[in-house]
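Ticket #4471: structure export looks truncated?
Reporter: QA, pipeline team
Priority: medium

Steps to reproduce: submit the single chain below to the structure queue and open the exported record.
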Amino acid sequence: MFIFARGLWHVYGIFCRSLCIVRDLQRTDPLFHNHVRKIQPLLQEALLSMLNHVSVHLLPFAFIMVVVLMPASAAAAVLSLDVELGFSGRFQLGKWTPVTIFIENRGRPVTGQLEIIVTSGSEYRGDVHRVTYARTVELPYQSRKRFSFIIRIESVTHRMIVRLQKAETTMVSRSINLKPFFTTKELGIVSGIAISPDFLSALPASVFPVVVRPEFYPDIWYGYHGVKVAIVSADMLMRLSEKQFQAMEDWIANGGYLIAASSINYGPLLQERTSRLLPVKVRGHRSFFELNALSAFCGETIVSKDPFLVLDAEVENSRVLIKEDNLPLISQRDMGIGKILFLAFDFMKPPFSRWKLRRTLWEHLLSLGPSQALSDVKIPDGTIRKALLSTMPSVFPSFRTISVLLVFYVVVMGFGYHKLKHRAGDKPKFAGYIVLFIAAFTGVVYAAFIYSNRKKNLTYNSFSHIIYHGQDSMASIEQVIGLYSIKATPYEVRFGPEFLPIRPLWVKNKDNRIPNSYLFYDNNETTWLAGYAQRWSSNFFIIESSIGFPVFAQVLEDEKGFTILIQNRTAHDIKACWGYVRGHYFSLGDIFSNTKDTWRIRASQLVNKENMNQRTTDHWGELSANLMEAVHLNYQSKPDTMCLVGWISPGPLPVTVDPSDHSGKNMTLVQWAIPVGAAGFMSLSETEQSFGQEQRSNES
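Actual output as written to the record:
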């Protein structure tokens, strides 16, 4: 009996220790299920103790203990989770990157929330914060599903957590050390059949080349944020899903660069979906033993003893860069603000794969890509924040109201002090009246302030910057959103049907430097950002994207001055427009929607910055002055370029804030550069013929 009691007490002690470990892991470690194995040695020790100290009658108790402790481990056993980070495990810091997750379910159907937790900041600086990317998933019995996320990684100090949550229970999870996977170079992704390491070594050193299988391409366009160029064969394009193909189209339109190559099998080029990127008319293959045209790119003709094939094809709406015997070798097609380059030869086949000047060729090809710079006129983030704060929805009494209340308060207090001074016996009583008046006055003013702002717990405004690239109908845009909260309240920023890359704009050198954690939710149809605003706080977010904004312009110069033709085909009036050329400014006034305007600007009408500040409407205070200075610094050395600037309202991106419907000033800055004296998007006569409304001439 003593031995039985001793064994029972020993097993009970181990059981309690095991439960403590389980409880601590559940509270502190999100990878609880991956570490359940830590309890297994204790279980083995308990079983051995039972065998050594007690009879077989104690075995049912041990069985009950195992059943109690192992349900989570059993749940994890039927679920497996694989993660593909970035492109073949590579990503750039501070850039959006894809994460592909495969989950296999070998047990009962599961519905839960798939989460990726990214932690940034430093414990030393005290600004550690985390962002959670989440999606609701359904896993039927005996299923394996693929899920694609687009995340942004700012730091590799902390591990990334991928987990499947059901209520408060973690079903399965993985922890990933990010340090081995990041790179400081832009990525060059390559897809094709039998890509050799020798080919990757021929790419320029400015890119980090990675071979990517089609199933790991992003499903949303900004997943290519860290990619400088995508080099693919035409048959690889057909292996993309429709959602991936649409993402690639959107990426190119937003400034991406695709190099597509032909192969001996040109069937994929004739497919309807491929023609959305490359509308090609194919006439067959032709054989060559040398290509003299490549000497324009590389300085040397490529020669082969054996014949090699070049596809005789013509890409619609493209510009032929080089051709051999009237056969286009390399063609360039613009798409939005991005570019597509089509190679009529297979770069993986001899003699191209053995050519000693391959690196020179690819350096030249990569240099033809679109410019990665968003704008040469960059307004500092601090200036934008100040402008947003100065135009935030009013939550304080106006200056006039404060002045009236202050005058009333001073008059009453002066009268009371005067009476108090001449009352010798009633001073305590009269002083009490004064204190009562102060309390009543303060209470009434405070109550009026609260009443007037009772519905303005959360307000917002925005500032957008539209930048043109040449004379295209697509333009880049940066939109900064400011949220202002009186009370602590949850909020959501929604984008409608759009997939937009939104991220916080941190306020540095602030007393409360720890950014609020937030959740970025994706339901496969739209995305939204959810967070929690502290009382009396401001939060700023920035979106970087592109939009269609067809405003075309042309500038012609003669001995009398400049002739400016602007055609505004948008639904927005562009107001308070002004321009800059050769160190001087001039005013244009307003450019109305769906109109065509012509201005004559004489040399005598050009003014300096001081005089221009007096003529223009100041929409954003300090921001307008900062903008004029930035334009001057960037265009004073460009005598053949005219910079035009104007304002529209409201913001062009479909952004709404919930629960707030109290929007402040949402203004958009439009800025683009036009060559002086050169043909623009279309000639002056062509523009007049294509737009049949009466134009008006303006003299500033």
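Status: closed, not a bug. The export was complete when the record was re-opened. Leaving a note from the reviewer for reference: The two ends are 109 Å apart (CA to CA).
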